[in-house]
Amino acid sequence: MSQPGKDASGKEEYADPQQLWQKAKGEDGTHKQWYEGAVAYWDAQEASYDGVLGGFGFVSDSDISDSRALLQRAMKQQLEQAAAGKRQLTVVDCGAGVGRVSEQLLLGHFSTVDLLEPSRHLLDAAQKNLKAAVAGGSYPAGHALGQCLCQGLQQFEPQPGRYDCIWIQWCLLYLTDDDAIALFNRCKAGLKPDGIIMVKENICKEGFIVDKDDNSLTRSNSYMMNLFGRAGLSVAYNIKQKNFPKNLFEVRMYVLKVPAQQQ
To answer: What is the CA radius of gyration of the chain?
Structure first.
């Protein structure tokens, strides 16, 4: 990857991602401080829909609507089998925050919803919110909250063959390229044979943009596609989110599959 990038203020430019990741290393030569900075940012945010959406809580309905439409297309056969009682589906909500996506979307379609979230106070709020929603009878009988893991994506080791879907929304931007590729390789092992990885992420027009407030990296569409290719994943869908404010980054949804020859 040779695309240049810059920080959000425009004050610092990078010749390529490798230069960024070299500069982002701490005194120990790792990116431990980079990840700790991101978690510290989210530890300081309000545990609410508005808090996890950066003050743009009003986009939640549009977000969920487009996600639901794509999920129903990408997993049509699996969802039909589940509705007929022929199988039970399991998903992990990565970067779960307060459980917004799980509460509004995933628990309606998956029998078991695991949570992965590195900020303890957000994960605690998610568990509370989702247990109350399940107890309130909002979902089909038997649908429930599963494992709750207080970890970052770079630490996530999916149980082999556990998941029909690995949902990664607005959190891949915190990973270095190497850690993203390593994550995808672990996710391959964590999927069932017909499982998918769903990535939903902010997208910039070209190159990449670094936000030093939360230690995140917004990548271009071509950057994302390059990353998926390097991880050996095929892209079944690449769709732009509709009805978001013009002053926000474009958001794209990617449905990723493991090529048959790798299974």
So the answer is: 18
